[in-house]
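Hey, resending since the last one bounced:
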Amino acid sequence: MRKWILPAILAIALAFTGAWGYQQYKLNQKYSRHMDNMYQKSFYELVGNVGNVENGLSKLMVSGDRSQHMMLLSDISRQAEAAQLDLGQLPVSHIALDKTSKFLNQLSDYTYYLNKKISGGKTINLKEMENLQHLHENAVKLNEELTKLTTETLKNQMNWGELMRSAKASFYEASDDIYTKKFVNIQKTGMEYPSLIYDGPFSEALDQHTGTELKGAAVTEQQARDIALKFIGTGRAVKIEKASDSSNGILDTWGFQVWVKGKPDLPFNISVSKKGGKVVNLICPYVAEKETISIKQAMEKAGKFLEDNGYEGMVPTYQQNFDGISTINFAYVQDDIIIYPDLIKVKIALDDGNIYGLEARNYLLSHRDRKFKEPALSMEEAQKLVNPNLEIISSRKAVIPTEGKRERLCYEFKGKLGEKNFIVYIDANSGQEADILQIIDTENGSLTM
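The structure tokens again:
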């Protein structure tokens, strides 16, 4: 009997050890996944921050306004500090990261120092601008290597252990020979990301409720139904059904679904304002299989569509292509001044040339006849206020919205700095630099940052 006791005890111990070992294995797996997610988050935040730093330095090269300098330097300083913190959280040898960490740290300190200098009433001198140019060149190199590493990571679906073993030394290289002394350390603050506008500048509505288009009589559901059918085309539509309405007090609408000939599985969703009877949105998830018309033809067709539906004086501004659909921004022009708040987006298919989307909310909320006084500055006077580094290609008057939900009459200067394209807005009355946008050309069209 006793001869069975020892094997039984050993079996129980072995089972207990196996269970404990399996539990530890699962805990280790959970911990590894947690750490891998943390590393991945830090890496992609690093990529985002370095990209923002490069963009901010680009804008700084073009800006000639003290208030813009202060804002841009503050942003760059915070984002460089955030990038350095992200870098420090990666499981990579500190020796390998030494130069990159030093670059980000000194970039943060230097821009903070310049911001304090400008706040004290001084300006950036020629030597300091040369230093910023060198910093920008290094940021471009670092951003390129990070982008390559991001692509490699996604392509090969590597985990962090594999990623770090395959990282190239050039990823961590950054020149720091422009620095001659140390600057004060900055306090740690939260990071801020500049907004990306993928469909042209000033594409967000102001909700300023000044538009005259929505001050007409109330329309009934049947009247709205007739307006929706006419807008899509009575000969094109085969069925219409009631859909959800919108009642938010700002722009109340009737909602419908409309089916057209040849596309039984792709209904259009259309909304018509309860006041004035204007089409606010038109949405259809159509994907073009091939492209048979050019972008120029698409713009002409979309422009004629707007004119036929009562939207006169609209000109195309920016355009993007996705899945064979071209999204074109149209802005209103009055007295040779482009009015960006009065914006309509049109989606047109590049195969059959039909309209598959429209967004007129901005236009309906803001469009009206404006009274313009003669600006205090001439075009020539305003152009002298643009940073001379920018090679100006074109100029015109423009009304742009502000963060304070107001409108601002400006001179719009489009130009180049090296291989990069920018738009600088100079207030036509105060001469202040109102905004800077960088134009990014992609295979799908243009975007602004």
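Residues 164-199 have pLDDT under 50 and may be disordered.

Sorry for the duplicate.
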